[in-house]
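Hi U.,

Before I forget, here's the chain from the pilot set. I'm dumping it here mostly so it's searchable later in email.
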Amino acid sequence: MTMDEKLKYSLLRGELVDTQSIWTRHEKRVWFITLITGTCMLYSTRTTMPLLVPAVASAQKWSKTDSGTVLSSFFWGYTLTQVVGGYFSDRFGGQRVILFAAVGWSLITFLMPTIIWSAGSIKSYAIPFIVAIRILNGALQGVHFPSMISLTSQNLCPNERSSFFGLLTAGSALGTLLTGIMGSFLLDYFGWSYVFRVIGLMGIAWALVLRYYAMAGERNRIINIATPSRLCANKSPAEATAVPWLRYFSRLSFWACVLTHACEMNCFFVLLSWLPTYFHDGFPHAKGWVVNMIPWLALPPCTLFAKYLTTRLLAREWHTTTVRKFIQSCCFAAQNLALFVMSRTSDFHTALICMTIIIAGTGFHNNAVTVNPQDLAPLHSGSVFGLMNTVGAIPGFLGVYLAGHILELTQSWPMVFSAAAGINLVGWIIFMVFGSAEAIV
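Structure:
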């Protein structure tokens, strides 16, 4: 059957209706596997430096402040491209933005050992040089989630978006697990440079799959023009570019979403960056693969459970706003309880359980505030999510740097954990009072 015949057949049948998604069932499966694998690789490359910083710092004679500066500099770049990534994704397609960025952050990861060794030859500028590369890496990775939320918003029905995107965020745990397991093995037997090389190569391989498999399928897509309103609902260039920022900025529910996300991201990024160092310093005899794997094993099942719980509560006709607040409260309650215990324990197993609970709580956050931009801004979710993640990344680099500075001055991990719990509490109150799932535009 020729392409013209297929098109006629599609038009005659009028198969698509307003309740169906633009992606077919097969396309959903292809893109889900592609995007969750990409998110896995994104986080795998992102967590290589936190895993390796004790070994690299020892070899390069870095202080805790130097380590904190290198770790936090990633988030300086991460804040720069969130809104830009969402804007270009809404306008030109998230898959193109994701591909361009993936090639960049994969290459940087692969070349990072060479960068670190080269920086060693310019002693007084070694840290600034590495920081500049880390900023670039963060900028490239900053477009991934805004682009992904834009891509899914443009190609899925409203009732599918939050659950689909929430599941995709589980890739972050899978990537961290990949680095924790394989990275720890490579570090123990081959040295830290091999971790960068292998994970960087895997990122490049995924970018090739995205370009020559997932994106290649778009060429064969048959568009049913019998329902133009459905196809154009989220893809109009005029709508995609004309983001009514003043309307969003004037609503407290928008700022509640943005600030709550920032508070939880502070906790997540501080622990993501410093978790290996915490166990390395406090429990030097602990196996690296244990502390870098077990906490992250809890995130995928908790993300799935939070998705299931959200679906069940909505099916029982709970208001979407109530569901979002309940799920987010589960996140903050679990994290703050674990942070409180962790700041007062010196037992390895207790600390490991607490860290696992904290990471697991992020699975609930991924099904609450993280998907809230799709509730508030269904037509501009990429841009709004980009702004939310920009603000969310600011506590990331400030919190990660300040944690290193606190440790340099006081050697006090309880101070770091108590600060994270206090910021979580602020976000919890803000979202409970001002949070909403009502669409603004």
